[in-house]
Specification:
Layout: E1 35-39, E2 45-49, E3 59-63, E4 72-75, E5 85-88, E6 98-101, E7 111-114, E8 124-127, E9 137-140, E10 150-153
Antiparallel strand pairs: 1-2, 2-3, 3-4, 4-5, 5-6, 6-7, 7-8, 8-9, 9-10
């Protein structure tokens, strides 16, 4: 009888050394396999990333001047395959100056939050609470304590939380 066990193909513990294993460590300098980088002729760069591997872009970063810092970042915040929030760096210092958010998926901005003094806290917020495309609530923090000091509402605005 012949022995079908080839010692070159079976390890001491009976495992197959040629089987797919964990493989080499990924190179940290190469982009994620779910990331597409697009270099444009005008020097701008777009980085599109599928964070959950479902085939749809969850995060798109646009670097208008090619300096390596995103000027605008678009995010799918609710997993519906639509980029419904935008983070903006208006002064190109690498920190977020504004967040624009489409809360109901109609393609129009419903919430705008601004960091006007670049301290990392929201100073001004504008809301379209009834999703009609017009802002109806404004909050402003004038003394940088994180609490709104000024509140302005549109005529006829009814606070949906006032009865609670």
């Amino acid at each position: 009888m012949s022995d079908f066990t080839d010692l070159m193909l079976v390890g001491d513990d009976g495992s197959d050394p040629a089987a797919d294993g964990p493989g080499p460590e990924p190179d940290p300098f190469l982009p994620d396999p779910h990331t597409v980088v697009t270099y444009r002729m005008d020097g701008s760069v777009d980085v599109s990333t599928d964070l959950d591997g479902d085939g749809h872009v969850d995060l798109r970063q646009h670097d208008a001047d090619g300096d390596g810092r995103a000027d605008a970042t678009y995010v799918d915040t609710d997993g519906d395959h639509r980029l419904d929030a935008m983070l903006r760096d208006y002064d190109d210092n690498g920190s977020v100056d504004a967040v624009l958010d489409d809360r109901n998926g109609d393609g129009r901005v419903d919430v705008i939050r601004l960091d006007l003094d670049h301290d990392g806290r929201v100073d001004s917020s504008t809301f379209d609470q009834d999703f009609d495309g017009r802002p109806d609530l404004w909050l402003r923090d004038t003394d940088a304590d994180g609490v709104a000091d000024q509140v302005r509402t549109a005529p006829g605005y009814v606070d949906p939380y006032a009865s609670r």
